[in-house]
């Protein structure tokens, strides 16, 4: 079918399926006809299709009118839509099938090129220069054919003030411009210094207004051209930025001012005033630069929801369309990465493109470019997130652009998206802001963008798009704001009374209460289940309050929540708080660790301030959460602190504030005794406003306030940088918060450039010991910057990281995410905020990161510890230092029935038990017992005390040796033993019973005797010269004890899994306990056990090859036991691939009870011939199967043998006798059948590689193999060691 053509003007426009291509040739061939020359006139623009996926520019004066084909060839997206079954398939094609008709409209609309160009001329130009400039401007106006429908030109002069010669809409013809220019004279020279900064601000506020001829609302490019006669001495960046914020490009021109000086305020600069030489610069469409933060998004499902109701108008709709087109241009659109869908709505929704419609960015941009403004038929909004192209476990984002007040049904539909969950961003005009907040996700200050009118979408494009993309990045797994820090912190919290005070009035309904219970369940899920002193209470109130349950265990609280029902009534929050005040006064709550969380949906009918204040005065930390009709003023009266006051739109959104409430509850638990060195490196250039500089200082002060600062705690230093670096104070200058806060207040902005690389180089030495740094402690550098670096920064950043410095990069306003990432080299240490106000929310997150919540040993988790304390005469009044030491060790431990137990023995002439291991199971009770100790004050019979202490580690006195709990005797003495003859024998007897002896000596203690008691293990001996030093010694000792008691070892004789059986199916639990030792039966070994859901492979798997560099020959196998994939399969497969490429030889996934083994196979790699056979824990030969897999991997990696066949399995041996029944601490029977099958498969491989070479001797370590000269691996001597081979136990809980 041949189309017909009709010429409308010179040139040609070719139509291809789904795309317009502007022919750049000067001569155009008419399809089916001959060549013809274009008519005389300006030379046609030349355009070459870029390599990127950006769309071609609008066709220029070279165009042909093309009649619509009866059935045009459809795009690939349209073809896919046509093949999709469904009643609305034809409707889905409507936009694609009218592509040709719309392309004609587009070609006609864009045939006239136009721009607004305003010249701002320095009156310092000489008369000759000014005349030359006028002549150039006259010729330039003639070249561009200036007029009202094409290029508009304006002119002003400046010195101290601005004089406007003519605005953009002053003239319609070139002749009018010429006549006026002839009569213009330069401003008189007054000798005053120019005020270019004021002139730039005036220009931005006045020159481009619609009433003065500005056409931003029509899509015109706008330029402010500053012609300088002398070098300015002012700080001009912010003035130029104010002009740019309105969507105007600033251009500098001068024959006397250096280009680099002009670039301080301009986007572009030229060392000439010959305007005619820059014609192409102004007449060529300036391509929009992609937003780097957006390009960083690797995977997401993004849906644009566009308002096209009657009140929005076609003009605003075109502005919205241009904004969306620009946004898409910054995204990596493809089916494996970012998927896009397009929805419009009036009274109902219409899906124009689903998430599987676009294969790439170009296709999506062309589609949105041709989207028309019209009314629609109905569709459901949720279908776009549930149906075609939607991916499970991929972050979902909705971007709503609206102008009119939305229908209730529309707002409800958008709000319902949060439950999928979908992150909703809302963009609209200021007067409709309440609607935006109704639709947007929490926190709304990050998800709502209100503009005065839609013309601001273009100048605010970068700000809005960067903000949205930054938040999407932070929604990923490995981001600065991820929840892993909170979970680690809450696992260290072992004492807390948490009371929920819940509004159950008529303000809520049953679904609200259900969402509240879900929130509480997830909240409590961050704590360990089996701790005695994490207690939970639930009080609901309306007319009056009542306890549903009070101070019960976490597991019991979760079960009890299911029985709570909604009742209704009035909102008497004040009465409920008074009720709680009486409870806190009369009942025993944990001192200093009691928390009240108030959740209310309405304004209280009675006063709340009085009882709330009295509750806080008792040391209770109060949180206030408001919904629906609650008021912020009343919420803050309840909490007493804006940081503990929260407002959310609906009850489902409670989940978004979970971490914000948990952080102040759990943070102190993990930050105890976690000293570090912190240096803030802050930008101080001229590109920062005074207000933003103040906000940056307030942020630093807030971080310091929320940290534990001191000589032996966190030390702080501050350095400013711009063109040069200025040290405000070093790490050894201030050790008190008030001193540090005062020094930060005194900081003054330097101004200058942004030489980040130089600053990184110079700050490195400040971590040295002579500058106050501490060699053995964590080093943190916090880079706070507002702009991109102008010098080389990669090598200095790498040098800092090589030195062991952790770099946290916080960017604001105009900072560059890619640069920040290259500096920190880790996405969880980078955050980029467009708005400086938003960094105030990061203070507590950063303070928590300084504590290193993921450090290997934070507290003594599970042990039997007895203090054997010297109470002889020499102790006298200094016994209190010993008590402080013991109390500190207790505080550094997790104490509960199933965790650490303590006992104490005082000795002098005779030893005497003060309390044994079974007497107390709370820190408060133990501390109180320690405080009541009274020394007997006699001779020092240490040897007798050692012999006496052995009995108190037995089961009868609370000892848990039978359950493989580490047992420790901590001897504290200040002198020589009166009975040294049996010191060695009695301490050896303790060790023979598995008891580790630590010797702590003070002042006159005999160091040789200390060494004897510790079994000559120097790492178990500690000595201080003075009793006062004993009070701070606990940190060193607790760290050593923590490492030796960490529950992770498994050997071939006894297997210890520290996990709660309910978290893993009981049959799987038993099979694991039986199967893993069989895997290790060829020799003793250790497996590191990581409690983790299979949600992230790469970060956990990194430990598998942390020591790769130390060994040349290495075989690495990651073995996972899992009950299913909790994370996104796509992401897990990507992380699996990262592990493979990083050097891991194979990943084997063993399915636990009820898991889908086929699903787990998706993340495996590196297996041998039987790779298609799933691995399951129920396989009775699983141990042998795994060893065979490892053998195949070893042959492939080490010997280049791709395939090996094994003989048939041998007969199974007879079952052993059942073991005796017993009780483990977690309630599981410890009597497993003690008779394992005698017959493992006895069929050895029939064919060995290389002719059946004999395996060599030697022991492999770290899953590394020993080799002989023949290069054959010794498979039979595999040994697993910590930090090199990991077994992941899905959902296991480590004690």
TrEMBL record:
One of its GO terms (cellular component) is extracellular space. Keywords: Cell adhesion, Collagen, Extracellular matrix, Glycoprotein, Repeat, Secreted, Signal. CDD domains: vWFA_subfamily_ECM. It holds the Pfam family VWA. It is found in: Secreted, Extracellular space, Extracellular matrix. Its main location: secreted. Residues 116-303, 301-464, 497-665, 677-846, 864-1037 form the VWFA domain. One of its GO terms (biological process) is cell adhesion. SUPFAM superfamilies: vWA-like. Residues 1214-1252 have a biased composition (Low complexity). The keyword Repeat applies. Residues 26-55, 1206-1261 are annotated as: Disordered. The keyword Magnesium does not apply. This is VWFA domain-containing protein. It comes from Gambusia affinis (Western mosquitofish).
């Amino acid at each position: 079918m041949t189309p017909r053509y009709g010429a409308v003007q010179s040139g040609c426009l070719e139509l291809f399926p789904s795309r317009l291509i502007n022919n750049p040739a000067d001569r155009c061939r008419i399809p089916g006809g001959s060549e013809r020359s274009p008519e005389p006139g300006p030379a046609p623009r030349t355009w070459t299709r870029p390599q990127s996926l950006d769309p071609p520019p609008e066709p220029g004066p070279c165009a042909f009118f093309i009649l619509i084909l009866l059935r045009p060839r459809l795009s690939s997206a349209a073809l896919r839509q046509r093949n999709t079954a469904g009643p609305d398939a034809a409707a889905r094609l409507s936009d694609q099938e009218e592509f040709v008709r719309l392309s004609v409209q587009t070609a006609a609309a864009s045939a006239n090129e136009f721009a607004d160009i305003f010249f701002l001329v320095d009156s310092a130009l000489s008369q000759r220069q000014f005349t030359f400039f006028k002549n150039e401007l006259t010729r330039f106006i003639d070249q561009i054919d200036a007029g009202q429908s094409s290029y508009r030109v304006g002119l002003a002069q400046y010195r101290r003030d601005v004089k406007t010669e003519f605005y953009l809409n002053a003239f319609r013809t070139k002749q009018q411009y010429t006549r006026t220019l002839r009569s213009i004279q330069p401003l008189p020279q007054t000798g005053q210094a120019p005020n270019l900064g004021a002139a730039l601000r005036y220009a931005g506020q006045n020159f481009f207004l619609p009433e003065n001829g500005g056409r931003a609302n029509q899509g015109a490019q706008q330029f402010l051209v500053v012609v300088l006669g002398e070098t300015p001495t002012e700080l001009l960046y912010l003035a130029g930025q104010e002009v740019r914020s309105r969507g105007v490009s600033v251009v500098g021109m001068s024959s006397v001012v250096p280009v680099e000086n002009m670039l301080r305020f301009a986007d572009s600069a030229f060392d000439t005033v010959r305007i005619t030489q820059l014609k192409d610069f102004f007449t060529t469409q300036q391509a929009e630069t992609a937003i780097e933060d957006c390009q960083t998004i690797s995977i997401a499902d993004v849906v644009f929801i566009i308002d096209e109701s009657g009140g929005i108008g076609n003009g605003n709709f075109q502005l919205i369309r241009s904004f969306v087109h620009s946004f898409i241009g910054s995204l990596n659109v493809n089916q494996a990465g970012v998927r896009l869908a397009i929805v419009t709505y009036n009274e109902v929704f219409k899906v124009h493109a689903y998430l599987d419609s676009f294969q790439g960015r170009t296709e999506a941009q062309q589609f949105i470019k041709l989207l028309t403004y019209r009314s629609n038929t109905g569709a459901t909004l949720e279908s776009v997130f549930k149906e075609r192209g939607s991916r499970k476990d991929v972050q979902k984002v909705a971007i709503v652009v609206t102008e009119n007040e939305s229908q209730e049904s529309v707002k409800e539909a958008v709000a319902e998206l949060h439950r999928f969950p979908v992150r909703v961003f809302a963009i609209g005009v200021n007067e409709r802001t309440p609607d935006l907040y109704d639709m947007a996700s929490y926190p709304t200050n990050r998800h709502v963008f209100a503009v005065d009118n839609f013309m601001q979408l273009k100048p605010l494009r970068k700000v809005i798009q960067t903000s949205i993309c930054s938040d999407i990045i932070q929604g990923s797994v490995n981001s600065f704001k991820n929840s892993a820090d909170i979970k680690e912190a809450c696992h260290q919290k072992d004492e807390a009374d948490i009371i929920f005070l819940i509004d159950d009035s008529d303000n809520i309904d049953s679904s609200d209460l259900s969402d509240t219970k879900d929130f509480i369940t997830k909240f409590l899920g961050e704590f360990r289940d089996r701790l005695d002193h994490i207690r939970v209470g639930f009080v609901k109130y309306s007319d009056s309050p009542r306890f549903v349950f009070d101070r019960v265990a976490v597991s019991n609280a979760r079960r009890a929540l299911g029985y709570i029902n909604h009742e209704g009534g009035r909102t008497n929050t004040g009465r409920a708080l008074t009720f709680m005040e009486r409870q806190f006064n009369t009942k025993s709550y944990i001192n200093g660790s009691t928390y009240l969380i108030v959740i209310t949906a309405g304004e209280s009918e009675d006063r709340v301030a009085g009882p709330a204040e009295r509750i806080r005065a008792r040391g209770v930390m109060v949180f206030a959460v408001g919904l629906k009709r609650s008021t912020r003023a009343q919420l803050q009266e309840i909490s007493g602190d804006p940081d503990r006051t929260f407002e959310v739109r609906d009850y489902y959104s409670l989940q978004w504030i979970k971490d914000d409430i948990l952080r102040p509850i759990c943070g102190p638990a993990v930050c105890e005794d976690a000293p570090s060195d912190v240096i803030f490196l802050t930008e101080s250039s001229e590109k920062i406003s005074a207000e933003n500089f103040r906000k940056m200082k307030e942020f630093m002060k807030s971080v310091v306030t929320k940290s534990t600062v001191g000589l032996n705690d966190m030390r702080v230093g501050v350095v400013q940088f711009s063109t040069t670096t200025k040290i405000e104070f070093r790490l050894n200058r201030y050790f008190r918060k008030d001193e540090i806060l005062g020094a930060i207040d005194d900081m003054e902005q330097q101004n200058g450039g942004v030489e980040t690389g130089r600053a990184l180089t110079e700050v490195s030495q400040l971590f040295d010991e002579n500058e106050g740094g501490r060699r053995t402690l964590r080093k943190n550098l916090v880079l706070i910057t507002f702009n991109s670096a102008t010098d080389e920064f990669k090598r200095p950043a790498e040098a800092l990281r090589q030195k062991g410095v952790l770099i946290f990069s916080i960017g604001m306003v105009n900072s560059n995410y890619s640069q920040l990432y290259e500096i920190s080299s880790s996405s969880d240490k980078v955050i980029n905020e467009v708005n400086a106000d938003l960094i105030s929310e990061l203070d507590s997150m950063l303070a928590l990161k300084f504590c290193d919540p993921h450090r290997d040993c934070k507290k003594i988790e599970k042990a039997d510890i007895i203090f054997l304390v010297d109470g002889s005469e020499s102790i006298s009044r200094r016994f209190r230092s010993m008590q402080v030491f013991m109390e500190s060790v207790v505080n550094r431990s997790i104490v509960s029935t199933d965790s650490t137990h303590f006992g104490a023995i005082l000795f002098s002439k005779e030893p005497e038990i003060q309390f044994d291991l079974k007497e107390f199971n709370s820190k408060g009770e133990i501390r109180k017992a320690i405080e009541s100790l009274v020394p007997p004050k006699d001779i020092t019979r240490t040897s007798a005390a050692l012999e006496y202490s052995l009995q108190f580690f037995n089961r009868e006195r609370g000892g848990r040796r039978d359950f493989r709990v580490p047992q420790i005797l901590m001897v504290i003495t200040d002198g020589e033993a009166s009975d040294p003859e049996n010191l060695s024998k009695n301490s050896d007897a303790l060790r023979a019973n598995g008891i580790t002896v630590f010797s702590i000596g003070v002042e006159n203690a005999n160091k040789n005797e200390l060494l004897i008691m510790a079994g000559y293990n120097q790492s178990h001996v500690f000595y201080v010269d003075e009793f006062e030093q004993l009070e701070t010694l606990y940190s060193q000792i607790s760290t050593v004890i923590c490492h030796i008691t960490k529950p992770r070892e498994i050997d071939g004789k006894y297997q210890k899994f520290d996990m709660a059986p309910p978290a893993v199916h009981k049959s799987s639990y038993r099979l694991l306990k039986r199967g893993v030792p069989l895997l290790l039966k060829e020799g003793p070994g250790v497996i590191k056990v990581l409690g983790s859901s299979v949600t992230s492979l790469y970060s956990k798997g990194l430990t598998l090859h942390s020591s790769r560099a130390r060994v040349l020959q290495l075989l690495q196998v990651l073995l996972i036991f899992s009950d299913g994939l909790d994370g996104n399969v796509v992401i897990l497969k990507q992380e699996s691939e990262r592990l493979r490429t990083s050097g891991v030889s194979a990943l084997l996934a063993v399915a636990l009870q009820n898991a889908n083994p086929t699903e787990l196979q998706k993340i495996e790699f590196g297996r041998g011939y039987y790779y298609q056979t799933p691995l399951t824990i129920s396989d009775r030969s699983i141990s042998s199967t795994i060893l065979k897999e490892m053998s195949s991997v070893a042959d492939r990696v080490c010997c280049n043998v791709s395939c090996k066949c094994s003989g048939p399995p041998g007969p199974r041996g007879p079952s052993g006798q059942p073991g005796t029944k017993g009780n483990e601490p977690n309630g599981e029977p410890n009597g497993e059948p003690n008779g394992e099958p005698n017959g493992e498969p006895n069929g050895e491989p029939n064919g060995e590689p290389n002719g059946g070479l004999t395996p060599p001797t030697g022991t492999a370590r770290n899953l590394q193999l020993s080799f002989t000269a023949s290069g054959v691996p010794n498979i039979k001597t595999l040994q697993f060691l910590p930090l090199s081979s990991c077994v992941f136990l899905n959902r296991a809980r480590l004690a």
